[in-house]
Amino acid sequence: MSTKKLLDNFHIWLKQKNIDITGAKYESYPLNCDYQGMEFGNIFLIGDAAGLIYRFTGEGIHPAMISGEEIGKKIIDPNYKISIDEILKKKKQQFIITNILVNSRHSIMFIHKLMIFLMKRKIFKNKIFKILT
Ligand SMILES: Cc1cc2nc3c(=O)[nH]c(=O)nc-3n(C[C@H](O)[C@H](O)[C@H](O)COP(=O)(O)OP(=O)(O)OC[C@H]3O[C@@H](n4cnc5c(N)ncnc54)[C@H](O)[C@@H]3O)c2cc1C
To answer: How many angstroms from the chain centroid is the CA of residue 101?
Structure first.
């Protein structure tokens, strides 16, 4: 989708929601979703520093809190086994979704609309919500 089309849609949505963005500035910010581990000898990484952001939604607050707690426990007890399996599972699912969207340039709108359509169906709704929220 072209940036113009994206902006037009955004403005339609803002108008529908009665949101005034006068004076606001468009900005983007790179997010680190490249997870390579959390323990590096006596150096520990958590949250964004560990690349725990979810690639599709850009959410990182929850993984930052969980990884912080886990590393905290590990520092207190060196025998503690860190567990962020749920986060890594969700990261993998969002990685797959993003890859599909990135690699399907011409059918991206179709896939996007299909996802919205499926999210309105009870059977898929919970599954998709689990991956995206
Ligand atoms: C525009 C934007 C919107 C977002 N929206 C959402 C959202 O809606 N939901 C969601 O879940 N996530 C969102 N995120 C992601 C979320 O903000 C981060 O994933 C989360 O804050 C990561 O927490 P963190 O503790 O790892 O890092 P941070 O919150 O970045 O904390 C790191 C802290 O370390 C400090 N610091 C850096 N270098 C040094 C240094 N050398 N010495 C001392 N202190 C230092 C920084 O100032 C900062 O306070 C958004 C991110 C952006 C950029």
So the answer is: 14
Q: Is the Cβ–Cβ distance between 131 and 97 less than 8 Å? A: yes
Give me the mean pLDDT over the 22-40 stretch. 93
d(Cα 102, Cα 98) in Å, to the nearest integer? 6
Residues near 99 by beta carbon (within 8 Å), at least 6 away in sequence: none
CB neighbour list of residue 70: distance below 8 Å, 6 or more residues apart: 38, 46, 82, 83, 84
Q: Rounded to the nearest 5 degrees, what angle is found at the Cα of 52, between the Cα atoms of 51 and 55?
A: 90
pLDDT in tens, 36-71: 999 999 999 999 999 999 999 999 999 999 999 999
Q: Pick from 49, 127, 58: which is nearest to 98 by CA? A: 58
User: Which of 28, 56, 61, 132 most suits a substitution to test ligand 1, by most atoms within 8 Å of the C-beta?
Assistant: 61
All residues at 6 or more sequence positions from 51 whose CB lies less than 8 Å from its CB, including other chains: 32, 33, 34, 35, 36, 45
